[in-house]
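JOB MANIFEST
job_type = single_chain_structure
chain_count = 1
residues = 280
[input]
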Amino acid sequence: MLRTKIYDHVVLLLGVFLMMGPLVVAFMTSTFDHVLIHKEGMQVGWGGKFIETYSTVLTQQGGFTGEVTGWLMTQNSLILGVGFALGKIVVSMLAAYAIVYFRFRAATFCFWVIFLTLLLPLEVRILPSYEVVQQLGLLNSYTGLIVPLIASATGTFFFRQFFKSIPNELVEAARVDGAGPMQFFFDILLPLSKTMMAAIFIIMFVVGWNQYLWPTLMTTDESYFTLVRGIKQIMQIMIGADIPKYNEALAMAMLAMLPPALVIIIFQRMFIKGLVENEK
């Protein structure tokens, strides 16, 4: 038993080292001067330029218009991530609710049609989606960034499985007490789904935060650029410089990883509980 525990801890420590090692080196390197990084490569230690580098990345205006800051791109990424996650939760919950509780004849068929859309990733349907958004005049807008992406087969599947695990006796009791479909959804089903909603929110927030292809296609106005796209934009500008500012690029990458990590840390208990309850 003791050997098993020691072995488990060694494996966990190796995993932590492999996962965190590159991040720690990248963070340390971002505190050094870009000239030193250019000469000697990645650094291990404290360079002393933490405040200067990160304040420059967050507040210095740049881009082709000279008006875009890292803070603005962070806000855009936050709006996209939160809107993406909340939109998917709402649409997925309503779809799963209709499939499980309304029991119409084509419910199973509709579910499998929704499920089969997993075979059509964004890259496959991106051109027709772009055409629709363009005709609606939603280019360079938060609505155009978020709404076309909120349909989710994965979210519908998880909520469907969760709703099916709720005892029928609860449904019958609500019906006997005179609760209609809307009252049952808001007063009973919604409170029971908190952990599942938290689990789906975490997954979808990270996916939305890391979106690159869709924001790249949808936005030409720099005021709507996201942080992930901003890193690429900054790197393109850096290539033309005499000495690329590697420290600022690494600082931007570290900032891009921070919000998803905080969301996972804050909601990790609800995330695990939501997934475990879904397996019952």
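[summary]
The chain has a mean pLDDT of 85.
The two ends are 29 Å apart (CA to CA).
exit_status = 0
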